[in-house]
Amino acid sequence: MKIQKNYKHILLAAIFSISLIFSVSAPAYAADPTGKTVTSITVTGNTTVPEATIMGAVKLKPGEALTADKVKQDMQAIYELGTFFDVVSNFNEVPEGVQVVYTVMENPVLQEIIIKGNTKVSSDKLSSMLTVKTGSILNSKALNENVRSIETYYHDQGYILTKVSDVAMGTGGVLTITINEGMLEGIEVKGNEKTKTHVITREMKLKPNQPFNVKDAKRSMQKVYNLGYFEDVNMKLNPGKEPNAIVLETTVVEQKTGRFSIGGGYSKSDGMIGIIELGDDNFRGTGDKVKLHWEFGGSASNKNYEISYTRPWLDDKQTSLGFSFYDMTNEYNDYYDDDGDTKATYDKRRKGFDITLGRPQGEYVQNYITLKQRKDEYVEWVSGEDYSKDPTYLKDNFGTTRSISLMRVYDSRDNVFSPTEGNRVALTAEFAGKALGGDFNYNKYTAETRNYLKVGHAQVVALRGTVGYADGKMPDSGRFAVGGSDTLRGYRDDQFKGNKMLAATAEYRFPIAKKVEGVAFTDVGKAWSEEGYKLNDLEASVGVGIRVSTPIGPIRLDYAQGSQGGRSHFSFGGQF
C-alpha cells in the first residue's frame, strides 16, 4: 500500500520588497562618491524606531572608504530589521569626504489582524502563533516567520497542501492573512468490479469538499484494506480543477471473498459425516458477511447447522448488527487428567443463538453488546467416564445459559490480518443469570492486550496477554479454557479449565517466501478452579511454526515443546 503525491507546493512569494537605490544628491556633486572617505553616517525618516536600533545594523564606519557593496549591505541589514518597507541612501560631499544619509520609510502601525479561509484550525490558535501585535509597527520579518510557522503547524497536523495564499496590509493598519487549506474536490475509485463504491468510500475519513489531510488518507487506506476484500489498496493525488485542490484516486485489487467447501469427518458415535459450508465476507458487494455450515449423515450429528449474518453498517453512525443460529451435536473430549489424557468422551448437543450490536466511539474504539442463549444437552456416552450416571454433574453442567455481554475494544493495528505495529485491547464482561430465564448465575470478566513491534524491514515481534476471572455457578462450557493452538501450544486443546486463567504469548515473525511466514514463539498459561492465581503452577512451551496464505484462507502449522513433550498443531485462520 502506498500514497503517491502528484502536486507541487508553491512557496509563498515575498511580501515586501526593498529598493536598493544607490543615488547621489545632485546639489552636492555629480561625481561618483565611491572611494571617498566617509565623514559621518546619519538616519532620517524614522519617527517610531529609535535611531540607535537602526545604527546598530550599520557596519560602515566613519573614516572608511565608501564602496557600493558596503552601502548595499547596510541597506539590506536595515531593511531586515523588519520595520521598514523601503530604504534609500543619499550622499553629501564635504571637503573631508562624503556624508552618508540613510532615509527609511516605516511600516504602518498595525491596528487589526483578520485571518480568513481557516476551517480546520481556529482563529484563536492561529492568532496565538503571531508575534506581530496590534498597536506596534508591523515587522515584516516577524510576519514572514509567522507565516512559515502557520504553514508548518498545518502540515504537522496532516494538512500538507495548506499554504498562506495572501498577506495584505490595507488602509487603516488592517492586516489580512488568507489561508488556503488545500481542498479535496472528490474521490475516484477504480478496480472494484464486485464491491460497491459506497462500501469503500464509507470507510474513508476523507470527505469531498473538505481540506485534504494526509494522516486521514493513510488511516482511510488502512481501513479499506482491513475490510479483507482486497489484495492491495493504493491512493494517488491528482490535481483538481481549482488551484491548490486535488482529487484522490483510490485503486483496489479485489480478491475472492466467497467460500464453498465440501468435506467429511468421522467420530466413534457417528461414523462418517458430510460437511458443506458456504460463506461470503462481501455478500453481493455490500460488505455484509454471511455463512452457512451444514453437517449430515451421522446418527447424532445429522442435520447439524450454523447460520450467521453480519451487517457492518446499519446507519451513518456505523451501527453494526450480527446474529447466528445454530444446532450442533458433536463429539467432545472432556476433563483431561494431569498427564493430559482424555477422561471422558461423549456426544453433546448445543443449540441457541446470539445477537450482537456494535457502534464505534471515536476512531479506534468499538463498543458491543451481545445477547446470548445457549442450551447444552448430554446426548450419549462414547468412552471414559459416563456422566449420564451422575445427575449432579449433569445438573451443574448442562442446561440453558442466557447472558448479556458488554465488550469494549481499542484497536490501532495498521493491518488486522498481519499487523506490524499498533495494539489492540479488549475488555469483556458477561453477566448470566436466572433473572434472564437461564439455569446458571455467573459473572465472567476477560481482559486481553495485543502489541506489535516492527523490528526490521519485515520482521515483527507480537505480544499477547490474557487474564480472566469468573464467579458464581458456571457450566463447563462457560469456563475459561487454556491449551491448544490459540492459547498454549504443546498441550491438548482446552486441556486446562477453570474460573480463572492467565495466558501470554511472544512471537517473532519473519518472512520466508512470498505468502509464507516463519514464527518462533513461547507460550505461558493455565486455568484454575481453586482460589487465587497460582503463578508457580503455570505451564510453558517453546516452538516454531509457519504461516501460509492460501486461496481458502491462512493455514497455520506449529510445533511446540512443553512439560508433557512435543505436540504439533494444524489450524485454519489468521494469527492474533
Provide tags for this entry:
transmembrane; Surface antigen (D15); mainly beta; 7 helices; 30 strands; Ubiquitin-like (UB roll); elongated; 576 residues; disordered N terminus; 16-stranded antiparallel beta sheet; 11% helix; membrane
Structure characterization notes:
By secondary structure, the chain is mainly beta. 11% of the residues lie in helices and 50% in strands. The protein is built from seven helices and 30 strands. The strands form five sheets. A 16-stranded antiparallel beta sheet has the order 13-14-15-16-17-18-19-20-21-22-23-26-27-28-29-30, with helices on one face. Strand 7 and strand 8 form a beta hairpin. Keywords: Cell outer membrane, Membrane, Signal, Transmembrane. It comes from Pelosinus fermentans JBW45.
Shape: elongated
In the CATH hierarchy, the third-tier topology of the domain at 450-576 is known as: Porin
CATH superfamily of the domain at 450-576: membrane protein fhac: a member of the omp85/tpsb transporter family
User: Between the first and last Cα atoms, what is the distance in angstroms?
Assistant: 21 Å
Could you report the average pLDDT, rounded to the nearest whole number?
Answer: 90
